[in-house]
Amino acid sequence: MPKKDYLVSAIVSVYNCERFIRGCLEDLEQQTIADKLEIVVVNSGSKQNEEPIIKEFQAKYDNIIYIKTEERETIYKAWNRGIKASSGKYITNANTDDRHKKDAIEIMAKVLEKEKDVGLVYADDIMTETENETFDKHTSAGFADRRGFDKNELLYSCFIGPHPVWRKSLHEDFGYFDENFKVAGDYEFELRICDKYKFKHIKEYLGLYFISPYNAEYRDFEITTLESVDARDRYMYRIVSNKWLKKLDRLQSKELFDVGYSYFQKKASSLSRKFYLRSIRYNLYNFKSYKGLIVSYFPSKLVKILKGPNG
User: Fold this and answer.
1) pTM, entire model
2) Looking at per-residue confidence, does 237 or 66 come out higher?
């Protein structure tokens, strides 16, 4: 049987998401471009029973590749594994707990087909706090209206969102996702490629984003913040405007202060001091970091007295 030509490959990373996987695969198979959509599922040592559901879909549809590893991998190692096994011209990541408008992937792929200087396409999202809703039938918890693309703004804020579509050929030019990252590897990759390729924002709600307290970006505040700081550090050299550099330095300083304060609240004084110092190095005038640094040397009982009855 000849190999099918796929336009888009959707990479699905699976780890302890049994309650979401059926809805995820149904969502992808119901896309208007489903006949040109390859689904690459990478099970990274999940402890739950997603596999029977995945194999049930494989028996029904011929566009699903299933890869399983025994060890737990970072999401970016799983994505890289899936991309290397894929055959589509374009790539998208499909988070198991998110959903799409039925023609979302088709709309974004059409932009890449038409505009050859665009490397990545992204759109707006509707947010929900209810599990396993569909785009057509959901309970809205707000809207994520993304910014129009500006590579300087991207250094200041990660605004691409969770459902982009990009050219697979970008990985030939720029490599794959940095597997050392846990939560900000996609942000680092976007910063890596945005100097050479345009990004296109579609002003339309094409995704349904599930807001979950179990998402790594919410659960691991310190890791998310530090990885974002480290990603920006790699590409700050591109900024030639002194105004932009000062703005970025203030942002980096503030975020490192927030990490220092978070560790201070957890009574991890040595870690809090480390990040207060990093904060000061970015912005010598961030006096909150000086105060936090000094207070982090005080015994916790004394800090409570200094804070007073109202904290």
Assistant:
1) 0.91
2) 66
